[in-house]
Amino acid sequence: MNHYWTGEAPWVHHLDADARHSSFFLPPSGTSYVARLDGARMGDEQAVFEHMSACLRFPVYFGWNWNAVADCLQDMKWVPADHYLVVIERSALVLQEWDEDREILLRILNTAGRRWGQGLDRPGKSFNSLLL
């Protein structure tokens, strides 16, 4: 499985019938949007806002504060999709010296996921975060 998503051969992969949870590797039906963020570039509050804005393509009216991050993650109409996945690689480095801000960010990500998942106005849509 080392060759997934690399652009190198092989380009066709076969999972054995006994592969557990193979559906985890597949996107759900419908359109999906994946944003990859680098925790090493998210060392302080301002850096988080800048990196998230760039990677998630926040609109020009983004307010550069935690409330604005929450609002944008619960909207995402500028990147229409059925499913959203935010992948934060090297997540241990995110706000490493700012525990309170890190908790705020995690709470915002969790709330966005819950609101997308329970939103009666968005049936079948999802927002998830993956911290690596």
TrEMBL record:
Annotated Gene3D superfamilies: Barstar-like
Domain called Barstar (barnase inhibitor): residue spans: 34-118
Cleavable signal peptide: none
Recorded family membership: Belongs to the barstar family.
Protein name per UniProt: Barstar (barnase inhibitor) domain-containing protein
Species, as recorded: Kitasatospora indigofera
